[in-house]
Amino acid sequence: MSDILGDMLEDLNLKVTYLVINALNKCIINLLKLLNFIVCISSGRVKWLLTSWNEITIKRKLRSDDTRIRLSLELKVNVIQVSYTVKAYINVKLSGLKSL
Q1: Which residues fall within 8 angstroms of residue 54, CB to CB, at 6 or more apart?
Q2: pTM of the full structure
Q3: 15 vs 89: CA distance, rounded Å
Q4: Do the Cβ atoms of 46 and 81 come closer than 8 Å?
């Protein structure tokens, strides 16, 4: 299955594609294989949004380099940034409702 998805994501006609994996830490079987796939397939056209508890295996494998951006949304680390982002999102949604 990973070969099929990999071929699809490497198609030159593919526009920017976003893939979301929630609770990556819950992957028990083949976690390292999945992490290797994510690292290998990451490109300018394929963007990943991953959520996980802080587990050392996952953090090491997905360690940032010049081509990857890592954003931690842990409140204890980024209280101000997370708060600002949440407020901005709420304001955008409220302004949309007001225009109705």
Answers
A1: 74
A2: 0.61
A3: 26
A4: no
Cβ proximity of 62 and 36 under 8 Å: no
Q: At residue 3, what are phi and psi to the nearest 5 degrees?
A: -65, -40
Question: 46: number of CA atoms within 13 Å, CB side?
Answer: 19
Assign 36 to helix, strand or coil: helix
Tens digit of each residue's pLDDT (9 = 90 or more) over 25-55: 899 899 999 999 988 887 778 888 888 887 8
Question: How far is Cα 24 from Cα 5, in angstroms, rounded to an integer?
Answer: 18
- Say how far apart CA 94 and CA 41 lie, in whole Å: 37
